[in-house]
Amino acid sequence: MSLLTSHARIVRHEFGTSLEELSRSGHRGTLTSHRDYLDVVVAGRNILKVFAIEEEAFVEKVNLRVGRRTSVNYSCSDVAWHQLDDNLLATAATNGAVVTWNLSRSSRNKQELLFAEHKRTVNKVCFHQAELHTLLSGSQDGSMKCFDLRRKDSVCTFNGQSESVRDVQFSPRDYFAFAASFENGNVQLWDLRRSDRCERMFTAHNGPVFSCDWHPEDRGWLATGGRDKMVKVWDMASARPRELFCVQTIASVARVKWRPERRYHLATCSMMVDHTINVWDVRRPFIPFAAFEEHRDVTTGIAWRLPHDPHLLLSGAKDCTLFQHIFKDAKRPADRANPEALCFGPRGDVAFAAKEGLSANDPARRALPGDRRNPFFFIRKAPEPYDASLTQQHSGSVCSVLNVFQRCDAKEKLNPLENESESFVELAQRYCLAGRPFAELCDHNARIAMELCRHQVAQTWLILKLLYAGGDASPSPALLPNGGIFCGKDGSSGLGGDGMSERGKSEGHGDGGLEEPNEETEGSDVENLTASVGLYAAAAGLYSGNGEEERLELLDQDTTTSDFPEFSLPPEAFALRHEIVDGPAGLEHLQTNGPDGPGSGDEDGTDEGMRSACQGKVGGSTAGLGITAAESVSLISVSQPLFGQTLPPEVFAPAVIAMLEFYAERGDVQSTVSTLIVLGEKASGGVDTLVQEHWYLSYLELLQRFRLWDVATQVIRLSTCAAISALNHDSTSLNLNCSSCRRALGAKGWLCDRCRRCASVCAVCHHAVKGLFVWCQGCSHGGHLKHMHDWLSASPHCPTGCGHLCEYT
Amino acid sequence: MSFPLFSSFLSRDKSVTNALAVKWASCTNVYPKPDMCECVGHVCVMYVAHRVSADHKDLIHDVAYDFHGQRLATCSSDQSVKVWDRNENSEWICTASWKTHCGSVWRVTWAHPEFGQVLASCSSDRTAAIWEEVVGESTDRQRTQSHWVKRTTLVDSRTSVTDVRFGPKHLGLVLAACSADGVIRLYEAPDIMELSQWSLQHELSCRLSCSCISWNPSCFRGHPPMLAVGSDDSSISSGGKVQVFEYNENTRKYGRVETLLMVPEPVHDLAFAPNLGRSCHLLAIASRDVRIIQLKPLRREGVLSQPVSPGRFETQQLAQFDGHGAQVWRVAWNATGTVLASSGDDGCVRLWKANYLGNWKCVGVLKGDGSPVQGDGAGSAQTVPGCANTSGGPITPISGFPILNGNHAIRNRLPCTSPYFLPPDDNLRSASRVNAVPLPVPHPLPPLPHPLPHSAGNRIPSHPEHRITRRMSSNIIWSSHDSANQ
């Protein structure tokens, strides 16, 4: 549905003055149906014109305001066109006059009759559907009058005995019945034959009832709209008027009109604020079924053009325009409204509300997995008001299903990694960030990360330890099982290789060369593995060359080309690395350095990795191999100074900073901040303080989200960032009163100068409280957190016996 | 800046580990048993679907967790907002329900708890409203239904207010509201204790009918306040439907800095990912498809913290998924900005996660009605229509695509949370009656207890199968991605 066509379809006419009311013409002929209802009359304070509706425009036919002297009689508040007589019009004037017009008169002045019986403004005129000569009027003076057009005055007067009449409507089914709505909220049902009192009266609205409309088909359904922004549908057939539906709109309702041929559809327009014309399905009272938003000012009159065609709507507004709307072009707020709601909880919960039945038709759609653009979309969005099924779709009210998906591990705690938030909380609580030697902190944190299956993080801790505490980097045997990343997969070879460093030393040199041709044929993936394997061994210092060999053999014997995709890595994985050009020189250096180094077991690993990498470079002619080799060389060249003890730790700083940034970019700010704190001055110098502050703040926000207040406080205390440390100094002044004499405590804070008592005595154990003091804001008694908790879980009263009902939340 | 040492570990250890694990297992004839296969095939985390009978009379348009995830607010076309609290059994109990507006309530959002228990709602009745919770007197022990008091109504809009969002905490109490006539209004409460006073600070025009708005949550001082606005204008010709506005320190105004021309279709929702120390911003967009856009602020060479000309961005589309068939209605990020959830016309929630290569993959499907998803085969490879490749490449079957739904999940509940103490900042306006404040008595924080004895944590699981399971389960997502990335 494009805007272009919708504009072209809407017939629009502009006037120089605001429109008050309009009425479509009556029958022109009974047979030529498309020629039906071709005229519309428009009435306003300064206008009274009849227009012919043509294909693309309104064409003025008759201007009823003629004569030099503009009479107040022509200042219309309402106009009605007789359903049976094409030429018969009636208008209600603001001065209380009711005028009838005969369009068939040949003279310019078409005015026929003038009834000046009402004292005040006539709000409404209404012709009887079946009677040619019966006209009803409702006025501000509170009375309704019935006119016989064959006579010069009213036949009878109905006095509502209440306030001004806003609307009168003949019932389409009951010959004698008409409804009248009043400014005090009442609706009255009258019989034409009884003028002394109404048949029935009830309060429909809170405030004036501006409009009412009988349902064209359902006998006894009356829709009313009032200033209380409500539209109500009443069943008048029952003994007492019963409210069937109630629609809440956003502004006071000026007009209500049932849509022809659609049993539950009701068009409304508002008196102020809202310029749109809404068509409601009264069974779904919250979202309009359709909306016409063309008018720029308040809509004053609406009329369906044909009594049996629900697709053409005429409307006039205070913006001096007259529109003919085609229903197809209406906006559909009900369809545009968001049918789903979704939210991610901090703990990984997902709250999801979806329209009921939205997924019910899902199986049919999923039956075509290749169909990614589902055709259902087009069907649903296509505006097909002619389709009866669409109205069926909107039958009744629509509801949402609200589900909260809570995470839980399928096997208890088997896989904490997946539950990101759980492991976040665990790590936050168990990480040790200060108070111990650096190496110990790293070991501790690595172990904790490993227990929670955060292998990457654990490895990072170990590497950090190795980098910065390289001097005493001998791996403690206790750390071995958890510290090595390979222990799970090749535990037997890794563990076995520990005692066989001597053999590994010799084999590491000898076999590396022998393996090389194999690796070459298998492509770069094995190279990657080999290189990284050697690297792990070097970094973690756990494995001898022996372990490497066995692992390589494993790979060699099992690796077939078809197996490759399982564990090969695409080259993009290494995009981050920088290249080191002088590979051979570094290798020479290492090869000479390696065997001479102090710790032979460690060197072997380094050597092995380096060797295979080196050979990979030599043998590999493809680009992929070259990258691999260069990269592994660079890795080794970074870790090499560990053993030579020649370079200061500043050398690692770029790598460590890059590590910090890597974790931050991945959304794991916990690792970033934890390592930053543990590293302290070692790393913080290289990172911009603003960036550090950002990391700290982000981590603190996460901690607060999980209510880890003490961890947050500790992080603030340990931070090296000035802006973060200052957070703990914000609003820390507390004004305390003594709990016994209720005087302000002085500088001491815990001792009352006046009554010479310790102010913070636990009400349960009567000892002075150090640390957390919990008190009731009602009676100001309190004490140790645990004591108060225990006491108040048993008794609702204050432990001091003051009688206060303390609330512990 | 490249990162030679660590990244090789980080990016590799997963796949290497997994590959070796499989290899080792196969050659030592301890091939994983069927249940382990399942464990490899399916992520070992399940979602338990708790049906909450919301009892709204019409569509629920928005649902919002509060900052801590302990409360939930829903709003509906039935003009009401409901607040749900999680009890000890992690059931959601409706503690308040009230009529908020005269029209459909499109959105509801929580303020940061530092400002109290405050909600904002917006509606098609052209208003936005601020609500604050008032808890009854302490004398009645039964905590009755709390009631929410309307603090103010923001009536500036002439059309339906389609979205309302509180700004990030460090900006103070700021509220952005956008309306269908294409105006974004920024309100501020100068005094956070006086919630009835809101001043209209800025009025931004985005010329297209706005449907959604999102603040950039970054607390980095180098990032000026930023918000993105999505439009549901249906004509393709009106250009990009997502606009980014940024505050300019010099002019003290918000200015449009970016229009994402790559999104020409109506946008129903958008969300900035929580920026936890990242240097760039991630924006998820719900349109005909789900998109993830990265906004990388361009900086002066060498100076990391100094933003140059504000509003210079390098925008890059990281992912585009077509999984929901038709319209995508909502997107939401998890707390760390690593998992994206999206929901669309198919009535499913899909979860997306990036692997270590930055490729976003579908890692789960949740059915809105809790019914099983078709093709729920154990461990069998299946084509998931939702997993379009970011690079526009062929859709790759992802083996071990986890199908999560309530029926198949094991029904166990989260451990109940013990009573806690609200911290001072949370306590500012909350109505708890007992406070915990450290006394001025100097009390050094005791060193954290060592969680495990040094030796106890080092016990190796003796049975090899056990270890394999642990290793493999940790690598599940990655293994599936590795195979998909060939």
TrEMBL record, chain A:
Residues 513-525 have a biased composition (Acidic residues). Pfam families: WD40 (PF00400). One of its GO terms (cellular component) is cytosol. Gene3D superfamilies: YVTN repeat-like/Quinoprotein amine dehydrogenase. It catalyses: S-ubiquitinyl-[E2 ubiquitin-conjugating enzyme]-L-cysteine + [acceptor protein]-L-lysine = [E2 ubiquitin-conjugating enzyme]-L-cysteine + N(6)-ubiquitinyl-[acceptor protein]-L-lysine. GO terms for biological process: autophagy; cellular response to amino acid starvation; positive regulation of macroautophagy; positive regulation of TORC1 signaling. SUPFAM superfamilies: WD40 repeat-like. It is found in: Lysosome membrane. Keywords: Autophagy, Lysosome, Membrane, Metal-binding, Repeat, Transferase, Ubl conjugation pathway, WD repeat, Zinc, Zinc-finger. Its EC number is 2.3.2.27. Residues 496-526, 586-611 are annotated as: Disordered. Belongs to the WD repeat WDR24 family. PANTHER family: GATOR COMPLEX PROTEIN WDR24 (PTHR46200). This is GATOR2 complex protein WDR24. It comes from Eptatretus burgeri.
Automatic annotation (TrEMBL), chain B:
The keyword Cell cycle applies. GO terms for cellular component: kinetochore; lysosomal membrane; nuclear pore outer ring; Seh1-associated complex. GO terms for biological process: cell division; cellular response to amino acid starvation; chromosome segregation; positive regulation of TORC1 signaling; protein transport. It is found in: Chromosome, Centromere, Kinetochore; Lysosome membrane; Nucleus, Nuclear pore complex. One of its GO terms (molecular function) is structural molecule activity. It holds the Pfam family WD40. Keywords: Cell cycle, Cell division, Centromere, Chromosome partition, Kinetochore, Lysosome, Mitosis, mRNA transport, Nuclear pore complex, Nucleus, Protein transport, Repeat, Translocation, Transport, WD repeat. Gene3D superfamilies: YVTN repeat-like/Quinoprotein amine dehydrogenase (2.130.10.10). WD repeats lie at residues 53-85, 321-353. It comes from the Eukaryota. SMART domains: WD40. InterPro entries: Sec13/Seh1_fam, WD40/YVTN_repeat-like_dom_sf, WD40_PAC1, WD40_repeat_dom_sf, WD40_rpt. Belongs to the WD repeat SEC13 family. Component of the Nup107-160 subcomplex of the nuclear pore complex (NPC). The Nup107-160 subcomplex is required for the assembly of a functional NPC. The Nup107-160 subcomplex is also required for normal kinetochore microtubule attachment, mitotic progression and chromosome segregation. This subunit plays a role in recruitment of the Nup107-160 subcomplex to the kinetochore. This is SEH1-like (S. cerevisiae).
